[in-house]
Amino acid sequence: MTSADTRQTTMLHILHLEDSELDHALVKRALQSTEDACTLVRVETLYDFECALTGTGTDSCHAAHGGRGFDVILADYRLPGLTALDAWALMQSKHLHLPFILLSGAIGESAAVAAIKAGISDYLPKDDLGKLRHVIQRAIEMHHIRLAKDMADAELALSERRLAGFADHLQTAIEQERTAIAREIHDDIGGALAAIRFDLAWLGRHTLDSASCAHIASATAMLQHAIEASQRIMMNLRPAILDQGLEAAIQWLANSFSKRTGIATHITCSLQFQPHLLSKPVQLAAYRTAQEALTNIGKYAQCSQVKIELSDADHVLTLEVTDNGVGILATDLDKSTSYGIRGLRERARTVSGWLDVSSLPSCGTSIILSIPLTPTSTSTSTSTSSCPDDTENPA
Fold first, then answer.
1. What is the C-alpha radius of gyration for the chain, rounded to an integer number of angstroms?
2. d(CA 250, CA 90)
3. Which CATH number fits domain 242-384: 1.10.10.10, 3.30.450.40, 3.40.50.720, 3.30.565.10?
4. pLDDT of residue 394
């Protein structure tokens, strides 16, 4: 048995939109001259064309084809009462995607170009049928490439949606965990520190030995430092100050940053919406963006001044944090370990916003968060559970 005998032949099924029996016979002869097997079904009207593609109707065209799917469409450009573009539009309306080749007489270069731009696969004059098989093969190959690309694009879009959903879930889980840790610090550690402070105060009142009093005073100072540290940690974990509004929370961040680093920090705020009308997710996204930006500035910027601008003009909440430091290189932003900016971008997406970072060497960096204020983002939402805001006594 020869290799030709064992070769599997792929049957090519072609639908031919043509009103001329003679032209159809010429196409059939051109295809029969090739080694590959094929079937050719001719239809003349738009109704028969639709029936053949969809398997509907009672006419003989679909029965002659045996109900099998077509691999390619050949179509004359002008037929009685319709053009090939009408057939193409019908396919698009039915969401049928097949290679579509114009096989016609001289239709003019402009008409051929317009057809190709509309999405039709190719054009071949009827007096050049010797190239028909090659044109069909090329159209099918390009069609398969487009299908593969569309499938890859769909899978990529699905993957991006899943990644965005995972990032949203991760941010929510992180905030919930931060709230739980802050509550434990407040209830357990805060209560223990308060008890120790009372005991030290009792010892100070009942001890006359100067050395013991000195140790008690030193322990009290260290205890006060621990209390302040626990309050700062709780505030960073769960910003209870957000209950007083975004402007107050940003102001507190700026004051704490300036006090801790010695860097002059200026705030400009022009919010038209009442603070309590901004939803909790929007406020938290803005707060965390400012917090991360200030943290990065304190670590890397080497600046002497920071400006924070907060506004909601044109129904877009905008937070801009700018420094006059050394700037950020594009290569640094693209590092695999640059999770801070990536995290802020993902957080912005969870509230339908976006984050822009602009920087020039030795000219500083500007981080801009923009969040469209839709009815959802400006509606009053139920506040999340929070630890008590007891900044004086963590008990």
1. 36
2. 58
3. 3.30.565.10
4. 38
